[in-house]
Design brief:
Elements: H1 2-23, H2 29-36, H3 50-61, E1 72-77, H4 80-84, E2 95-102, H5 110-127, E3 131-135, H6 139-144, H7 146-149, E4 155-164, H8 172-175, H9 182-185
Antiparallel strand pairs: 1-2, 2-4, 3-4
Helix pairs in contact: 3-5
The chain binds flavin mononucleotide.
Length: about 190
């Protein structure tokens, strides 16, 4: 009986280890970060600090944009009731960052630029050991209450980033969603 249990444990550990090593640990911190980032859904109420938010938004500002126009504004929302009116299951201590793009202007690509800034902030939050999740669904709700959310005049919300501390009941292996394979996605022209 003991032997069977030990064998089972070894198999489980080997499988878990295999899953980890496939996705991680190239030794390059940026590559490892990209390959292991995931989007939690369950957060606890430990507050995200001002210093963490400051670093995250600085990484957003560093994102590239067409002609370096930086056609975005970031609105950091901490008020729980206001956050809940946009993302209903948000936890106290979480932060919503509204990424808004300039509404007018010739030859601009604000949605794309805002997407890049969002991803930079998503990765920055993850690198700080926080959880982050991008939300497109509630963008219309946010745009319906721009004044209350203090989105600057002339900008509309393009994307929402939720940042918080990840609840201990979830982990990267069980929480991460799978991706299509390189065979499905990439074709090489020789
Ligand atoms: C443009 C965009 C919109 C998204 N909108 C939502 C959303 O409305 N609600 C949600 O729960 N997740 C949303 N997500 C998160 C995706 O579901 C998530 O990035 C994807 O499933 C990959 O998950 P993973 O990072 O855990 O691998 C959105 C992501 C992107 C890039």
């Amino acid at each position: 009986m003991m032997k069977t249990k030990a064998t089972l444990l070894i198999i489980v550990l080997a499988l878990a280890g295999g899953q980890l090593s496939r996705a991680q640990q190239t030794g390059n911190p940026v590559i490892d970060q990209l390959l292991t980032a995931w989007s939690p859904r369950i957060f606890n109420t430990i507050p995200v600090t001002d210093d963490q938010i400051d670093l995250i938004v600085r990484c957003g500002i560093k994102a590239p944009s067409a002609r370096n126009q930086q056609p975005w504004r970031f609105t950091v929302v901490r008020d729980e009731a206001l956050m809940k009116s946009v993302v209903s299951n948000v936890a106290a201590g979480n932060v919503l960052i509204l990424i808004s793009g300039k509404e007018s202007g010739e030859g601009r690509t604000p949605d794309f630029d805002c997407g890049l800034a969002t991803e930079n902030m998503f990765l920055a939050a993850t690198a700080l050991g926080l959880g982050a999740r991008i939300y497109g669904g509630p963008v219309a709700i946010a745009n319906g209450k721009r004044e209350a959310l203090m989105v600057p005049e002339g900008f509309r919300v393009v994307m929402i980033l939720r940042v918080g501390n990840i609840d201990g009941s979830v982990d990267a292996v069980s929480g991460a969603t799978p991706r299509k394979t390189t065979e499905e996605i990439v074709n090489y022209v020789k």
